[in-house]
Amino acid sequence: MPTPPVPQAGLRPTLLSWLSTPRHALTSGEVNRAEALAWQHRARARLAALLAVPFDPVPLDPRALETVQLDGYRRTMLAFDTAPGTSAIAWWVVPDGVDPAEQPGGTPALIATPGHGIGARDLLAMDAVGHPRPEGEGYQQDYALRAVRLGVPTLVVEPLGFGVRRDHAAGTPDDDASECAAGSLLASMLGTSLPALRVNDLRRAVDLLPALGADPDRIGLVGISGGGQLALWTGALDPRIAVVGVSCYLNTFATSVLAMEHCACNAAPGLAVELDMPDLAALVAPRPLLVEAGLRDPIFPIQGTRAALDVVRRAYAALDATDLLLEDVFDGGHAWSGRLLPELLAHLQPRDTRPRPSLPERLA
């Protein structure tokens, strides 16, 4: 393959020369609680501006499309409105023996959103067209269904352009990975970004859950890969989310999405100039945060994850919450681990019974 006449003529060297890694107190040294909180206030405001959507909120208008009783749980397919002319699709999955409508104050609830692949059905032991398949297959390991098996009602939200939210009118096949490139182009021409629209969907899911019987103070959000991106960005932006789980995503922009071929859905104009991935994770503090990372993940290299965790640990230390940062660095690739999911979900228990665990052993 021919190389440019000078290195600076190439695509990445040219554009990455514009990037200067943001330097603030969390990356340059120790900070105290007041400094960390002040930084969070400023950074969250900038993130909100960068992920702004060009419309006002619309009524949710939730409606059930299908309900089925399965082995140990009830699954309802829902539609709800998130933007003008836009309906999100989700599956509300409730374990047998749990009735959110009858529990005083509501039940804990988890929002789960998938990575690239066939879409949200791949978190619920279904194939691309909704037929059942054995549990635990694929790189995502049906982690939403795992949460349900642990007793937590779970809302599985389909990202715009994934699964049943592909552009079928344009002939996109069910087994196509996504329409992120088309979605990113359309969103940018309309004055926003694809991740901003997907984050908006998840924030509207937080709005929806109390109407389904969830306790608004006990809502978690978990995702892997592209879903991990959405979990991290939404958790950073929206303090209503009580716990956040990020699998196979936390890294630095310079060593992952800007260093190699990555999906267009990672693009939010201007974000990398102002905030890096560990900054977004620092915005989750002091809420419980689970980070999963495979030692052999080819698209989110472990050295970038370790550099990011160094920053995140400083944020949690400054806010006296080091025991609420859960790290699972496992011997594997780009795949769900799940070893600390029960510990993360334990933080959604009622405050008078919720354990505050000691700092877990590092699983590196």
Automatic annotation (TrEMBL):
<dbReference type="InterPro" id="IPR025890">
    <property type="entry name" value="Abhydrolase_bac"/>
</dbReference>
<protein>
    <submittedName>
        <fullName>Acetylxylan esterase</fullName>
    </submittedName>
</protein>
<dbReference type="InterPro" id="IPR029058">
    <property type="entry name" value="AB_hydrolase_fold"/>
</dbReference>
<comment type="similarity">
    <text>Belongs to the AB hydrolase superfamily.</text>
</comment>
<dbReference type="InterPro" id="IPR050261">
    <property type="entry name" value="FrsA_esterase"/>
</dbReference>
<dbReference type="Pfam" id="PF12715">
    <property type="entry name" value="Abhydrolase_7"/>
</dbReference>
